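On clarity, I found the account of how folds are encoded harder to follow than it need be. What matters is that the chain and its backbone geometry are given together, residue for residue. The format is easy to grasp once an entry is in front of the reader. For illustration, here is how one protein appears when written out as sequence plus structure tokens.
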Amino acid sequence: MHFSLTIKANAALLLLWCAVLVACFLASPQPSLFVLAPFSFGGLAAGLLQRQAMQGALPELKAAATARQVRKALLLSRSGKLSVLLLWCAGLAVLGLLLRGGTTASLQSVVSAYAAFSFAREATALPAVLKLAQVK
């Protein structure tokens, strides 16, 4: 199984995104819920789709040894494809936020927006990772 599918790697990612969010909140005078909310909800949706895709591809994911094989296994289902699409949309939204400029495009708000998306996605998909760890 690829290391990115392990409980340890996913716990580390959750801690990382949480630390980034905390650092951004501490560095920013007022975090913008206008920016964070859509990214958080997008991460929740991507995580639910990713969890569904993972649960439908447990044998393929367990056998995956490379990141390419993990991606291929996730793309077997419609939910996996939509999850990857949401990931790309989040990246494009961050780019759009940067191009828009203004007060909503500070470094802290842009980084915290992507961190909120990633934290929500990882936390929501974690049950599938736990289930994958139980597969023999």
About this structure: DSSP finds six helices and no strands in the chain. The CA atoms of residues 57 and 76 lie 8 Å apart.
